[in-house]
Amino acid sequence: MDVVVLGAGAAGMMCAIEAGRRGRRAVVLDHAERIGKKILISGGGRCNFTNVNVRAENFLSENPHFAKSALAGFRPADMIALVEKHRIPYHEKTLGQMFCDRSAQEIVTLLEREAKDAGVGIVTGAKVESVERLAAEGGPDFVEQVNHRFTVTTSVGSFRARSVVVATGGLSIPKMGATGLGYDLARRFGMNVIECRPALVPLVFAPEEQERWCDLSGLSTEVIATADGTKRPVRFREKMLITHRGLSGPAILQVSSYWRPGQAVELDLAPGARVIEPLLATKARRDAGAAAAALRGAWPARMAERWMLNHPPAGWTNAALEQFERRLHAWRVVPAGTEGYAKAEVTAGGVDTAELDAKTMESRRVPGLYFIGEVVDVTGWLGGYNFQWAWASGASAGRAA
Question: In terms of CATH, what superfamily is 3-198+345-398?
Answer without folding.
Answer: FAD/NAD(P)-binding domain (3.50.50.60)
